[in-house]
Amino acid sequence: MNNSVENRFFGIVCGALLVFVAPLFVLFLFLSSERADKEIRDHISILLVANAQALAKPLWDLDEESVTQISATVVSQGAIVKVEVRDQSGQLDVSQSTIPRSFDGKLVQVSRAIIYNTIDGPKNLGSISVYYPALGLFSGLKQEEVVFISIFIFAVLTVFGTALIGNRFFVIQPLMRLTAAIEATRQLGSRHHVDWQSNDEMGRLARSFNEMQTKLESEEKELKLAHRRATDIYNLTPAMLFSLDEEDRITAVSDYWLLTTGYNRAAVIGRNFADLVTANTRDKFVKRRRAESGMAVTVKFVCLDGRPMDVLIMESEAGAGAHDRLSLSVMTDVTELKASEDRNHRQAITDHLTGLLNRQGFEAVLDSKIAAADAAGQELACLFVDLDRFKWINDNMGHAAGDRALIELVARLKTHLAPFDEAARLGGDEFAILLPAKDAERRAKAMCEQIASIFETPFAPDMHLSASIGIAIYPHHAATAAELLQKSDMAMYAKKRDGKNGAQLFNNAMLDRARSRAEIEANIEAGLVDNWFEAFLQPIVNLNGRGIAGFEALMRLNHPQKGLMPPAEIISVAEETGKIVRVGNIIMERAISNLAKISRISGMQDTYLAINFSPLQFDPALPARLAAIVGRHGIRPERIVVEITEAVLMHDNPEIRMIVTELRRFGCRIALDDFGTGYSSLSYLNRFPVDIIKIDQSFTRAINDGDDDVRQKSRMLIEGITTLSHKMNCTVIAEGIETEEECRTLHQMGLDYGQGYLFHRPQHAAKLIEELMAPQSAVARAS
Q1: What mean pLDDT do residues 491-510 have?
Q2: pLDDT beyond 50 at 783
Q3: How far is residue 675's CA from residue 681's CA, in Å, rounded to a whole number?
Q4: Separation CA 573–CA 301 (nearest Å)
Q5: Collapsed DSSP state (helix, strand, coil) of residue 646
Q6: Which of 760, 680, 688, 700 has the alpha carbon at shortest distance from 730?
Q7: 250-253, strands of its sheet edge to edge
Q8: What share of the chain in percent tops pLDDT 70?
Q9: What is the distance between the alpha carbons of residues 547 and 778, in angstroms, rounded to a whole number?
Q10: One CATH from 2.60.120, 3.30.1360, 3.10.450, 3.30.450 for 3-133
Q11: CB neighbours of residue 472 within 10 Å
Q12: Is 320's pLDDT higher than 50?
């Protein structure tokens, strides 16, 4: 009996209880305890945050009574049994406790620093610590959880007992009777039937034993019937079924296969299936069938009437060996599906507005055009076309008008394209044209002249367009498709820089410029990471006495190997890439820090700092950022001059206007840089809160020009600007003063301040401070 089924069942049930139920019970207790502890900690964390804030002011004032009252309030909360408040300096040490004398358990401590925000910033005044009793394994249980555990234990015991009783009556006893019947059959040699009737597994086993002989007699009849049914299904199934032997000959076809293809059974049985496939897909079918045992392939099948039909063939093998290979295949008509795929593919590579190829389609066809040019011994010209005024049309006449112009442009362009040419719209107002020819450069220039003629006629009333075209030739300028498109793009941008409206053939100098730009971008990024940017300062002097009135902060990139790099290109690239914001913030921070150092020098307490700002730097956070920096360094806002150019103001952006006004309200002064070089600079004096006008150095150089007419006009302009500015209470500064004669003339004209190499060159702040501190340095405070 030790190895009986009943004993084994009892052992399995007991083992299951120990392996699964007991660990789950322990895990439940542990999770309950963890949950209770987390609830207490969350509650205490909230109390500590609130009371740490409440204690900050009393602790700062060393108000022990208020600290004691708040501590008493905390110790009365929930599970907290003890509170300790300590001052950082040790002057206050308040402790509140409700721990009973008989308590000998473990306490858990939670602490938090007490921070008080002063004018000088946040101060750590001390800490608050609370204690609560550590929870045991059962102490975290709620009442409903205890009830749940009791019900769970009772349910487990009930199931265990029921399983043992049921196993005894419904498994062991029927199994013993069945064993006795089988033993009797073995000993007597007769077909002894099992005397057992039930609807469970034991009953089905007994009936199977009794019916075995009867089923053996009927097997042959059932096999014949199954074969006949399989044949009927093969022929009557509404699918094109066929079978092939090891030599790809047709051995059977379904009636639906014959109906769809138009053939008759006698004409195709024994015929090689590959003979019914079009010549351009026949090799594909043969190779796929030889390579794969259960293939799936799409080919073009030729029907009896000669109509080609795209079919998907799915094959499964039914043969037993390599020399007895039989298959069952289904052939599905996918002609409409293939046509739909082709339409979708054309839509994916076609621009929906113009009907030309889009960028994806152009890049795909570019490789094939290069391969075709190589095969024909030709060259391939790539024209990159960019419309010059298209953004203005969209902004001022609407996108619908822009779309109509593009459609009309493509219609005119197609009249000049040869059958083997290819045109594409790469996006927006960018187009590309591929021209294969023996002399691709000559043909490309001729095409550019034809494209120029397209724009002679307006596309609508008051809608005149032009185009900048870049030309690159394969294989002279590029060896790959990507390189050809890139270099034609570079040539187009070169034409844009040179004045637009025309064509430019690629040359290696463009590549050098691109490499130079990439090098500048890399230097800017490295400068930001490795701290290469420095804020040089150039003094601004009072023309009446030459005393220093202020300083202009100038960006310099000090490369560790190349030294100081020209700032103009760096600023231009930084503005194009958007990195000017990060660079400008660094220069602003360092320049203000340098001004704080200069302010410690006698006579320099009232000098100001002028900082140039790019249009990209005018984000809503700029006033707050600038206020934080000057506050940190103790600089009065009126000592900061924000220099802006016409580029910042010319679009009259409401957001920029608001930021400039906010800076002015904060106390900063506003200077208009390079005044007189723009289109409408005078209007800004009336529309914006400008305090200082900086006359561009081109006017300064012209006041003593050798040409009398130029000299006279320049002086009249400067005098007029100065008079207008003074009438509007604006200070006037002349830039680029290099000679005493220029300085004397400008002073006589009534200008207030000057800046230039005559007085000081831009230099590192440390060197400038050293010069200012020299005994012989004559310093005068600005009036």
Answers
A1: 83
A2: no
A3: 7
A4: 61
A5: helix
A6: 688
A7: 250-253, 240-244, 327-333, 308-317, 296-302
A8: 87
A9: 7
A10: 3.30.450
A11: 27
A12: no
Q: Measuring CA to CA, which residue among 405, 320, 389, 399 is closest to residue 354?
A: 405
With beta carbons less than 8 A apart as the criterion, state whether 13 and 164 touch: yes
The pLDDT of residue 681: 54
Q: Are 137 and 30 in contact (CB under 8 A)?
A: yes
Return d(Cα 7, Cα 21) in angstroms, integer. 20
Interacting residues of 10 by C-beta distance below 8 A, sequence separation 6+: 164
Cα–Cα nearest to 54, from 33, 74, 29: 74
pLDDT at position 618, please? 87
Confidence at residue 498, expressed as pLDDT on a 0 to 100 scale: 76
Assign 318 a pLDDT band (cuts: 50, 70, 90): low
- Specify the CATH superfamily of domain 237-340: PAS domain (3.30.450.20)
Q: Calculate mean pLDDT across residues 388-396.
A: 78
pLDDT at 735 over 70: yes
Handedness of CA 191, 195, 199, 200 (dihedral sign): negative
Reported residue count of the chain is 783
The conformation of residue 169, written as its DSSP 8-state character, comes to I
- Tell me which residue of 630, 625, 628 sits closest to 640, measured CA to CA: 630
CA 726 – CA 719 distance, rounded (Å): 11
Alpha-helical runs (H) found in 76-172: 143-167
The pairing of strands 502-505 and 467-474 is: parallel
The CA distance from 492 to 641, in Å, is 40
- Could you tell me where the DSSP H helices lie in 62-128? 64-75
Confidence at 380, pLDDT banded by 50, 70, 90: very high
Of 501, 500, 505, 438, nearest in space to 470 by CA: 505
Q: Which is more confidently placed, 193 or 49?
A: 49
CB 769 within 8 A of CB 537: no
Q: What is the mean pLDDT of the chain?
A: 82
Distance CA 303, CA 60 (A): 98
DSSP 3-state assignment of 193? coil
| Contact status, residue 538 vs residue 504, Cβ threshold 8 Å | no
Pairing outcome for strands 308-317 and 296-302: antiparallel
Would you identify the CATH topology of the domain 350-506?
Alpha-Beta Plaits (3.30.70)
pLDDT at 235 over 80: no
Both tokens assigned to 722: 């100065």
Phi first, then psi: what are they for 732, rounded to 5°? -115, 130
Single-letter amino acid, residue 6: E
Is residue 287 over pLDDT 50? yes
Confidence category of residue 548, pLDDT binned at 50, 70, 90: very high
Cα separation, 59 vs 388, in Å, equals 69
The domain locations on the chain are 3-133, 237-340, 350-506, 519-773
Residue 609 pLDDT greater than 80, yes or no: yes
Does the pTM exceed 0.70?
Answer: no
Q: What pLDDT score was predicted for residue 705?
A: 82
Domain 519-773 has CATH 2.60.40.420: no
C-beta separation of 670 from 691 below 8 A:
yes
Query: What mean pLDDT do residues 307-323 have?
Result: 72
Higher pLDDT, 488 or 148: 488
State the Cα–Cα distance between residues 453 and 465, nearest whole angstrom: 11
- Say what the pLDDT of residue 637 is: 94
Q: Which DSSP category does 607 fall into?
A: -
Do 3-133 and 237-340 come out as alike in CATH topology? yes
Which token pair is 86? 């300590």
Q: Which residues of 132-160 are buried (b: 16+ CB within 10 A; e: fewer)?
A: bbebeeeebbeeebeeebeeeeeeeeeee
CA 208 to chain centre: 68
Kind and range of the H or E element at 735? strand 731-735
Please state, for a pLDDT cut of 90, what percent of the chain lies above it.
26
Q: Which helix (H) or strand (E) holds 239?
A: none
At residue 781, what is the residue type?
Answer: R
Residues 551, 539: Cα–Cα separation, whole Å = 4
